[in-house]
């Protein structure tokens, strides 16, 4: 749950942590990025991708500094509690009024001496997994905490809507054809409409909604229970993901190498920037999960360097996947879910590979849906939680799961435009979680640390972007993104 201090879990090496972060960031957004690249143009897309990757790295370092500051507070409270226990033990054998002036002075100076003895480096070790919601409650006021939960709940709702639409959409694209039931799925240069036939009298949109209903009936009940992702499930889904990505990149390169590349993307098309921006922000989203990723790393000595290396690798991967896609396929034939472009006989001759690539989003996304649904349900509980209070059984087991599951399914029922869903998610809720919240957290945690420990305490995990300018720049950028996307949507609707 976002508001809890949780167990650290089993420790792993820094390089394993690097792989985990890579797997977390490279998810559904990567599959929607090629179409966004083709729409906005290769040069504009590359520049924006690099810039947004840099901004995400900046706020990731902000989050690590805030995590260290939160740990320092917890470590300090434990030290104070242990010192109080020592005082009680030492005073139990003497009269209550026997506190001398020397003992009083020692008690007054003890916290300062403790900082000097243990050192600020020890205080700022990231050993407790303090989730984003708990950091918000530490450093924000009541209004800030509520705004945080509002932002993350909206983001999780939109995330669930993307997942609820992606799975039925993939199944529809693979199993339906405009000319009948064939084994090749999507046909070359064919743009299907929702009203095109699928099976007999059923239209494609009917098939999509049938798949959505089945998806909801199969995975929806998990929202009403507690579910955990196992280690072996992570390994299996990660393995499937990287096999699929490798096959897509290799097949695209082979087609381009054989002169079969159909794509001629423009250098710039500013009308496509809105969706590209949202997709790129969504594709670098990891800030809300950093406590779970960073805390179990056994050695955090060169943590910032490793994270920087991760971002460089992710940028290289996104660029390779997107550039091979936009030069392999025509821009108007690229589908929202990139893997579906390989469900064509003229692209992949082997039926097993076609079905694997066409259906791989179904398997990987389906395993994540229950996890995100339970996370959203728990955030709803945390938002309305009162100290010492409990919820009635109906509210806890029925109301919260229902308000978690129904809205994203309704959104998916009315639209399966994944590029727009991802774009809106990244542009609004993603901007808050990736930019605004980390910037406010690091600013307030610095003030709190200075007040609590003085200027002599140095946060060993402080961001290299420690100047106040960077906090202001990130907040200004977040505001600019919000205004730009809103204005773009309003202007687009006005033109229509």
From TrEMBL:
Membrane topology: Multi-pass membrane protein
Compartmental location: Membrane
GO cellular component: membrane
Domain named Amino acid transporter transmembrane: residues: 20-67, 134-450
Pfam families tied to this protein: Aa_trans
Residue ranges of the TM segments: 12-31, 37-58, 139-157, 208-227, 239-256, 276-294, 306-327, 347-376, 469-491
Keywords (A to Z) from UniProt: Glycoprotein, Membrane, Transmembrane, Transmembrane helix
Family: Belongs to the TMEM104 family.
Identification of the protein by name: Transmembrane protein 104 isoform X3
Species classification: Eukaryota, Metazoa, Chordata, Craniata, Vertebrata
The encoding gene: TMEM104
């Amino acid at each position: 749950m976002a508001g809890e201090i949780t167990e650290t879990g089993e420790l792993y090496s820094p390089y394993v942590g690097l792989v985990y972060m890579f797997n977390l960031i490279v998810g559904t957004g990567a599959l929607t990025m090629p179409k966004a690249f083709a729409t906005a143009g290769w040069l504009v897309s590359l520049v924006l991708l690099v810039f947004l990757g840099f901004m995400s790295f900046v706020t990731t370092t902000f989050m690590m500094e805030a995590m260290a500051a939160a740990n320092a507070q917890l470590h300090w409270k434990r030290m104070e509690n242990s010192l109080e226990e020592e005082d009680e033990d030492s005073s139990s054998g003497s009269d209550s009024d026997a506190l001398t002036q020397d003992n009083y002075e020692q008690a007054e100076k003890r916290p300062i001496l403790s900082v000097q003895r243990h050192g600020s480096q020890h205080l700022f070790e990231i050993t407790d997994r303090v989730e984003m919601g708990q950091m918000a409650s530490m450093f924000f006021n009541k209004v800030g905490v509520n705004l945080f939960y509002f932002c993350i709940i909206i983001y999780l709702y939109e995330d669930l809507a993307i997942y609820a639409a992606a799975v039925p959409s993939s199944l529809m694209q693979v199993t339906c054809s405009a000319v009948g039931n064939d084994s090749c799925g999507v046909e070359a240069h064919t743009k299907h409409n929702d009203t095109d036939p699928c099976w007999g009298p059923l239209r494609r949109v009917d098939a999509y909604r049938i798949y959505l209903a089945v998806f909801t009936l199969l995975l929806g009940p998990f929202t009403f229970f507690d579910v955990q992702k196992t280690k072996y499930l992570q390994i299996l889904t990660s393995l499937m993901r990287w096999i699929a990505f490798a096959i897509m990149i290799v097949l695209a390169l082979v087609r381009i190498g054989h002169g079969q590349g159909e794509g001629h993307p423009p250098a710039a098309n500013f009308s496509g920037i809105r969706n590209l921006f949202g997709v790129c922000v969504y594709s670098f989203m990891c800030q809300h999960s950093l406590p779970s990723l960073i805390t179990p790393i056994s050695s955090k000595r060169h943590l910032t360097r490793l994270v920087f290396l991760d971002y460089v690798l992710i940028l290289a991967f996104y660029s390779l996947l997107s550039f091979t896609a936009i030069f392999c396929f025509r821009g108007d034939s690229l589908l929202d879910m990139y893997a579906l472009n390989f469900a064509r006989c003229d692209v992949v001759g082997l039926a097993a590979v076609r079905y694997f690539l066409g259906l791989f989003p179904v398997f990987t996304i389906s395993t994540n849906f229950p996890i995100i649904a339970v996370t959203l349900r728990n955030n709803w509980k945390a938002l309305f939680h009162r100290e010492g209070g409990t919820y009635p059984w109906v509210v806890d087991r029925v109301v919260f799961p229902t308000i978690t599951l129904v809205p994203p399914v309704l959104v998916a029922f009315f639209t399966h435009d994944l590029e727009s869903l991802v774009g809106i998610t990244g542009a609004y809720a993603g901007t808050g979680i990736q930019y605004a919240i980390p910037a406010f957290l690091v600013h307030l945690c610095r003030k709190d640390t200075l007040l609590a420990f003085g200027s002599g305490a140095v946060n060993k995990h402080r961001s290299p972007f420690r100047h106040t300018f960077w906090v202001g720049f990130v907040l200004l950028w977040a505001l600019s993104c919000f205004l730009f996307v809103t204005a773009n949507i309003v202007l687009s609707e006005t033109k229509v």
